[in-house]
Amino acid sequence: MKPPIPLLVSTGLLLATVPLRAATTPHPLLPNAPKTVTVSESQTPPVIRAGLLQSTLIVLPAEEKVANVFAGDTVDWVFDGGHVASRFVSVKPKVANGTTDVHVVSDHGNEYTLQLREVSNDDDPHFDSKVLIEPTDKPAKDKLVELPVFVPAAELDKAKQDAAAAKAAQLAELKAEETKSEQYRSQYPSSLHFDFAWDEKKGKELGLQQIWHDDKFTYLRGQFQETPALYEVKEGKPSLINFDFANGLYTVPKQLENGYLEIGKQKVEFHRNGGGH
Fold first, then answer.
1. Known InterPro entries for this protein (predicted)?
2. Residues contacting 266, CB < 8 A, separation 6+
3. Which of 105, 30, 90 minimizes the C-alpha distance to 55?
4. 10-residue block means of pLDDT along the chain (277 residues)?
5. Which of 6, 37, 50, 121 is deepest in the core (most CB within 10 A)?
6. CATH no. for residue 261?
């Protein structure tokens, strides 16, 4: 038997270019139904019946793709894994009665060894047209649920391109957000309105300094000995409202028309000019 020769490195199999030898078969060859063969490192490799000038398709488990193929005889046999990473390897003998071995390495690191035998001179005219590989060793089965250890160059390039495109999209989004934020900051002062009125004497006694609003919030600033309660007045009825308070600043998540601050016996009413009183 000739020494194994590597056929595939990462992205695809080398297709033998030697012209097919002319040959005659004693009887027509007939394809078998697809079959499954079990492969184990501790057992003799299964024998695959190949037909002269006929293609036998070797199929890896659904979780795997072909990463590399090694074969003993690349002169009398053609091995083709296509031009993209897939589960399939095509095998075709070019001479009668030939034998060789083939070793398929998957992207998960599993290794599958098969014996190939050309059978055109056998009494049985059937050859294996499609062979599905099934690993029986536990380590090989465990690898099926893990991430691939070999990544075809084409897929690696695509992953790099996808990552670069995602990064560019993220940068573009950040740039758009920065531009939007800058525009908002530049226009924000014009959205502030200081149109509230209150008793300034009472306000000074309580510590109230200013009240204003933008298109979403109402703000009250002051220097308070204690934090006064904040009420909104609607239709003459007061109600406590939610607000954030930090460093003397009330931030109310709504636009107020009328309300008041109160602590103890001190109370400061306020209202927007043009709002209801």
1. Conjugal_tfr_TrbG/VirB9/CagX, VirB9/CagX/TrbG_C_sf
2. 202, 205, 206, 228
3. 90
4. 50 44 64 92 92 92 89 91 83 93 90 93 92 92 84 69 85 82 68 92 94 93 93 93 93 94 94 69
5. 50
6. 2.60.40.2500
